[in-house]
């Protein structure tokens, strides 16, 4: 869980850097060029299989751990004030993970599936033909319900990261009294900034299409 989680954190940074190109005022050229590179570069394509495996392992292992925890303790602990020993996000990682998983399925259907097998128009840059994935993104983000779903899902991701980031370091034994405050600070900053930037992209594109 910790290793795949940290790998997916790196993926979020890379994915965000690509998505930010959607906001450039160039009619989608930078994003379309970027998308072509990401889908044609052999190293990137190989890494994508590791990414798919990481998603599956992270999800499957979460289910296994949840089942094992319930088997180990079929009767709940005596109720105490929850905030005394844990955060809300740590107590609801399963719920938050489910929100992110549902969003991921819908997101892959609207973009990843369409990118590989859906009808996509083409555009010409400097004599070369590119698939106009920017137009696909713009069409999806012009729907208010999907933008709302995206924003809610990013809030879920924020709370999921809030606990998961620092917890991964602790699981791997990389926590230390001296460095824990810095790890906590970076984790909280990452959990807020990255999902917020992801959420801002569909909002901005939606407002432009009004």
From TrEMBL:
**Which residue spans traverse the membrane?**
49-67, 88-108, 144-165, 185-207
Q: Keywords on this record?
A: Membrane, Transmembrane, Transmembrane helix
Fetch the InterPro entries from UniProt: Cytochrome_b-558, SQR/QFR_C/D
- Please, which domain of life does this record's source organism belong to? Bacteria
Query: GO CC terms on record?
Result: membrane
Question: Know the name of this protein?
Answer: Succinate dehydrogenase cytochrome b subunit
Native source organism of the sequence: Fulvivirga imtechensis AK7
